[in-house]
Amino acid sequence: MPEGPSILILKEKVQQFKGDKVIAASCNNKTLDTDILVDQTITGFKSWGKHFLICFPKFTVRIHMMMFGTYRINEHTEKPPRLHLQFEDGELNFYACQLKLITEPLNQVYDWKADIMSEAWDTKHAIKKMKAEPELLACDALMDQQIFSGVGNIIKNEVLFRARIHPESVVAAMPPKKVKEMINEAIKYSFEFFEQRKAGTLKKHWQIYHKKECPRNHVPVKVKDTGKSRRASFYCELCQEKYE
């Protein structure tokens, strides 16, 4: 699943189409009436966590890549795209994604303070949301898009390892300094992820995700489906403390 940094990279890549008019459009599963896109001009591109937003004067097209979404810029595969946008000097194609038309103002739809890579990010805002859920686990907190929009399973694992926090730690039981450390690592690593993904070196820098041995203690890494989402957590029982 593309995480927040990957969507920011996509946003950078498509800036060439800002101000362009859509001359043809199609949707292979008819979840979006693409007739309304034809002759419309793209006013800009935005992102909120894992959501990629194509903005038009009176509405926005939201693209969620889900687990296996991909895209092509100025090229296409043999498989019909979920969404195809044709311009006079290029094309955009999105595959295996979820589409939604947003007609409300985006500020009414999205909490920009929750986007981990946004300039509007607010640490106090995140802490307040976590305090409202006393039984919240660290692994669930990081994966909650209303608290840490853009964080996915890779970032979750790497952040918890760097902060030395067991994924099944109860956030309310963690010292305030440890909560802030987790948040700071989430911000720091998200931007590292962004640069490493652009450089094509992301996997080379993983410390715990899909690793067999802890680089600190040289003991086997534990793998367990944790939290409400039952997503895989990779952790070291020796150096990641469990707060209960």
Fold blueprint:
Blueprint: H1 4-13, E1 24-27, E2 44-48, E3 51-55, E4 60-64, E5 70-73, E6 83-87, E7 90-95, E8 98-102, H2 106-109, H3 123-131, H4 138-143, H5 153-162, H6 176-199, E9 222-226, E10 231-235
Antiparallel strand pairs: 1-6, 2-3, 3-4, 4-8, 5-7, 6-7, 9-10
In short:
It catalyses: Hydrolysis of DNA containing ring-opened 7-methylguanine residues, releasing 2,6-diamino-4-hydroxy-5-(N-methyl)formamidopyrimidine. By secondary structure, the protein is of the alpha+beta class. The protein has helices at 4-13, 106-109, 123-131, 138-143, 153-162, 176-199; strands spanning 24-27, 44-48, 51-55, 60-64, 70-73, 83-87, 90-95, 98-102, 222-226, 231-235.
State the main characteristics:
244 residues; alpha+beta; N-terminal domain of MutM-like DNA repair proteins; 2 domains; four-stranded antiparallel beta sheet; 10 strands
